[in-house]
Design goal:
The complex is a heterodimer. Chain A is built from 9 helices and no strands. Chain A is mainly alpha-helical. In chain B, α2 packs across α7 and α5 crosses α7. Classes of the chains: A mainly alpha, B mainly alpha.
Chain lengths: ~210, ~230
Amino acid sequence: VTAAPSTRLPAGRHGLPREFIKRNQRERVLTAVVDVVAERGYEATTVADVIKAARISRRTFYEHFRDKEDCFLAAYEMVSDHLVESMTAAAGSFEDWPQQMRAALATMLELFATEPEVARVCMIESLAAGGRVVARHRETMQRFAELLRTGRPRPTGERPPPPMTEEALVGGIVSLIVREIANGRTAQLEQLLDELAELLELPYRDV
Amino acid sequence: MAASRSLSERLGKLPSDRDGGPAFAPKGQRERIVAAVVELVGERGYRKATIEAIVKKARVALSTFYDHFEDREACFLAAFDESVEAAREAIAAQVDRERSWPDQIASGLLATLDLVAAEPARAKLCLLEAPAAGDAALARYERMLEGIAPELQAGRELSPQGARLPEGLEIAVVGGLAWSVQQRLAEDQAGRLPELAPEMLQVMLTPYLGEREAGRVAGRVEARAVA
């Protein structure tokens, strides 16, 4: 993850307000934990690795976070909130549902392709972390399913697509993305756009 | 020439245990270890299923564990491979290849959900923990999904859109279904899965048969379940 310029503090005395420094430190740790976990995997990552990458003291780390899981959960929330907000904003520029979904997908794929660490943390390491992180990840995916459900096209048949449709759609799209990441094709993720957009329409199409 | 070799030479080359364990290890040690890892992973997840906990549950010495497996991951992967293979056989036995494609998919799905409901710990290991247990396990999980995809691919022949359907459709359908199963497993609701079969079937078939026809097939399966 590329740190925003404001998160890089000059060494030594800087005379910045304490609150600012604290927030800045916290963001630096979150950015660092995303990078380290993406590189080594959650399991192998230690607090010492994170401290080193964030260039902060152990004491500062524990002022902000209880442990590795606490820190990674906060990082997951930071990246997934950013993802959901960007996708929602992209969808908001369009009127009709297929275009909204396509814009949201395009935003996600672009974000993952340009920030492969975010892709890995969101889609793979969030599962590996287990516990509260994976629970949070499931919630995020449920939110996506809800968004899809609210805009679903009107059914044509007597037996409309069941409620599970959107959950399975999200799971299916995640599967295709995970497969690309696992095969080292994160940078090419944007090539999936047409396919994923079409997949989103298939459950509602009659033949 | 095999016949001219001494008995001891030949004994030395005998296949030992299934995965290269010691030739004279008491029978069942390896099976006990695998059963223990399945149970522990089901209970507390892969991350917390330590080797200490595994040997304790399997009632074997730590050295015995290492006679059979290089490390915890190797043990997990062996449990995954054996579980998937056994499931594949059990499910295949329930699918009548003479029946129509939607019927084959329906019986395959029902067999899968029954199996998951009957063995939630094993299902958790294969479906919930494998994608989260490191790169080797994730690769195997991916291969498992890819192994199911051809079953669905046959549905393209029944679809007027056939070859025009997106290339990744089968992986998306299988992966989506796996995701839905994972949600139930994570909430310890695996027992409810068989009753969700008609709904899941409809989701699987719609991209191939269209909304109406998939709804009809799902309705038939539902009626059969009620009857």
